[in-house]
Amino acid sequence: xxxMMFEHNGSAHLGVVDGNHVIDMQACDANLPxxxxxxxxxxxxxxxxxxxxxxxxxxxxxxSLDDVTPALPIARPGKFICVGLNYAAHAREGGHEIPQYPSxxxxxxxxxxxxxxxxxxxxxxEQLDYEVELAIVIGKGGRHIPVSSALDHVFxxxxxxxxxxxxxxxxxxxxxxxxxxxxxGPLGPVVVTPEELPPGASGLRITSRVNGETRQDSNxxxxxxxxxxxxxxxxxxxxxxSGDVIATGTPSGVAHAMKPPGWMKDGDVVEVEIEExxxxxxxxxxxx
Length: 288
Ligand code: MG
Fold this sequence. Notes:
By secondary structure, the protein is an alpha+beta fold. About 15% of the residues lie in helices and about 30% in strands. The chain is globular, with a radius of gyration of 18 Å.
């Protein structure tokens, strides 16, 4: 299934995407969870109730995707963990060694923005960079999860653009400032459940474009640490919980490595895409 949160008539709704339409699940059954995060927290029982409602759809609940505004699929994840340097060519283009253990950092919800909302070019920097990433949404939580059963803990997969303010990222060895500017974390719009994708969402073409020009073009099979390995490694030191989001790193081709650097500017449009998941598109706007 393909889920999204969307704004319609002034409020947020949980929808199931079907082709060019979205079905407002609240309108089908007012007792269903009202957000994707609630649905995930509700486990197998909530999902089976939603599927039952979906299979008995009344007429006239379809909305055109053109008529709704995407919202963040998970507005306030309990944890938003990012893996850095997870594609060998990207590690090399930034002058880093190939990691033996993943580089990890965190994002706070204040940096996240929905599909279509502006990515904010801050007043204090010109070094605004894009990073297309596969994002994992955790379903069933857990600790000490073995690689062999790690995929059982995935609710679905979505798109993330790990927009980075490079000069602030490199002010110290800790990347927190450069990865947490307000309005620099596009996420969504759809969360695709695993049965629609190859295992671990591996083997999918992953690309980014600025104003239609391809900047990154790789494949999720090139990740150094796979979906299942990342889940296992993270759960070795902390409990993963339902609705946690994990961004899995970006391939080569970032603006920072171009000569001259191809930073994003006010008025640009940045798109990131993973085949079979979709496109996440955002305009860039200067901070007011
Ligand atoms: Mg990244």
